[in-house]
Design goal:
Blueprint (H helix, E strand, L loop, with lengths): L36 H9 L7 E2 L5 E2 L8 H12 L28 H9 L17 H14 L21 H12 L18 H15 L8 E6 L3 E8 L6 E6 L6 E10 L14 E9 L3 E10 L8 E10 L8 E10 L3 E11 L4 H35 L7 E12 L3 E11 L6 E10 L18 H12 L1
Parallel strand pairs: 3-9, 11-12
Antiparallel strand pairs: 1-2, 4-7, 5-8, 6-7, 8-9, 10-11, 12-13, 13-14
Helix pairs in contact: 1-6, 2-3, 4-5
Length: about 475
């Protein structure tokens, strides 16, 4: 019998459990015309945000121009990232009043705030000021910390944004700004990030959908598998075009109550509200799934017209749900290092592992990743001196060097870790070059893993992997 096959090249992003209650299905809000209607309908369909009440005519209202309060921020982060206690166990149940002096334990946002503190999204102590507007910087930091708390690695452009109003920010604050800017979650405009400005509810709806888009399992996971603990949730996203009459529907996967759909929505590709909907414009359909109990199921979605029997496309995903005790004990976070001069710009995103029981193995991993990045930086610093001197002597233009690094987590569990780091460097030529280095390790011994280590001796793993590649192509 062959060993369990770990697909190092696949990365299914998932998030952890939440406690959001059920809400009525979103209706037609009477006050969102021209205010990011697509995003607002999407986040309410996925149960991430809800309306603020009704108007005099009995219509639901969303209050799109209202400022986002700190209490609202805590609640939508709980709904979106499904924050939980993680590995922490308490002698007594933690309460919001344990952390802040101006919060009552019966307040509607109290549980959300507790989860935010436990996951290091909010800093305990003093007053929380729940009714105060949340600034763009506070929101950027909270979103960045939420991705870190859930150990969600996302691809992003390797670029150091240049803003005229972030010079006084601390390194931690700037890390959050870089993250939300490079991932497209929250960008600046006209060379300004406006860190102290507040955010409206319609702007927050768009931000949350961009988070969902980054986290969702999608069509590139065709034939794949995702593993969750009971109580966790995940998002699924598939391309769709309802103007043609086709739509996705669930064929199998929720029998036996292993998983269940807690929300769904459709979002058009073109988010420019000035563009009127046209026939033929497509988008993506989204689902929010909850893992209810231990077991496994084959989730199958089919793309059909309701009046036809023939399916044109299908999506299959094997979902394995384990007991809640089988959570990962290790996590990967980021360490950012920046420096900039007239001749070289350095933006290093270095992976950092924590939670291993063997401190020496953990130190070895972190030292290796930092050394690989710093060795490359030191080499370029030497090269830039010779480059500048030569070009000045020959009256050649000087093009500043660039060094960017970014990593992507592939797989992590109690036995193994797989990630890669992209090292991009520009040294004055026609274009830059990216080197991608894989790091695959046995977390229990610290030894490097090769692909043969994942299979029994003489097992024909090449044929299996090649067949998977052919099916995906």
């Amino acid at each position: 019998m062959k060993k369990t096959v770990f697909l190092l090249l696949a990365c299914l992003l998932f998030i952890f459990p939440g406690v959001a209650g059920a809400e009525p299905a979103p209706g037609n809000y009477g006050d969102i015309k021209g205010w990011a209607e697509n995003d607002i309908d999407a986040v309410t369909g996925l149960r991430l945000m809800k309306g603020t009440g009704t108007n005099n005519q009995g219509q639901l209202i969303f209050s799109p121009e209202a400022k986002v309060s700190r209490a609202q921020l805590a609640t939508v982060l709980l709904n979106t990232f499904n924050l939980d206690y993680g590995y922490i166990r308490f002698i007594k149940q933690p309460l919001a009043s344990d952390y802040f002096g101006d919060v009552n334990n019966s307040d509607w946002y109290a549980n959300s705030l507790v989860m935010g503190v436990i996951n290091n999204i909010f800093v305990a102590g003093g007053d929380f000021k729940p009714d105060s507007p949340a600034s763009r910087l506070e929101i950027a930091q909270a979103v960045y910390r939420s991705f870190q708390a859930k150990n969600i690695s996302v691809p992003m452009i390797q670029l150091m944004p240049i803003f005229e109003d972030t010079g006084t920010l601390s390194q931690d604050e700037m890390n959050a700004v870089v993250f939300v800017s490079n991932t497209g979650i929250l960008k600046g405009s006209n060379n300004s990030f406006k860190p102290m400005e507040s955010m409206t509810r319609w702007e927050l709806a768009g931000l949350l959908m961009r988070c969902v888009q980054l986290m969702a399992v999608n069509e590139n996971s065709l034939g794949g598998e995702i593993q969750l603990s009971s109580g966790q949730t995940f998002y699924l996203s598939l391309p769709s075009n309802p103007t043609t009459g086709y739509s996705w529907s669930l064929k199998t996967g929720v029998e036996g109550e292993v998983i269940a759909i807690s929300g769904s929505t459709y979002l058009e590709d073109d988010l420019d509200e000035s563009v009127q909907p046209t026939v033929g414009r497509g988008g993506r359909q989204y689902w929010h799934f909850d893992a209810l109990r231990e077991g496994s199921t084959n989730l199958q979605m089919i793309y059909t017209r309701p009046w036809e029997d023939t399916e044109t496309q299908s999506f299959n995903l094997k979902v394995r749900v384990t007991s809640s005790a089988a959570k990962l004990f290790a996590k990967i976070s980021s360490r950012f290092l920046y420096s900039e001069s007239d001749t070289i710009s350095v933006n290093l995103n270095i992976p950092v592992i924590s939670g291993l029981t063997d401190d020496s193995i953990q130190f070895g991993f972190n030292s290796r990743w930092e050394k690989d990045a710093m060795d490359l930086q030191d080499r370029l610093l030497v090269e830039i001196e010779d480059y500048v001197k030569y070009n000045q002597q020959n009256n050649f233009p000087i093009r500043p060097f660039q060094l960017f690094t970014n990593y992507r987590l592939g797989s992590i569990n109690e036995k193994m870790l797989s990630l890669f780091v992209d090292y991009y460097q520009y040294t004055g030529g026609a274009h830059g070059i990216t080197e991608r280095r894989p790091y695959n390790y046995n977390l229990q011994s610290g030894a490097k893993l090769s692909i043969t280590d994942l299979f029994q001796a003489d097992y024909d793993y090449r044929s299996v992997i090649n067949q998977i590649i052919r099916e995906q192509i």
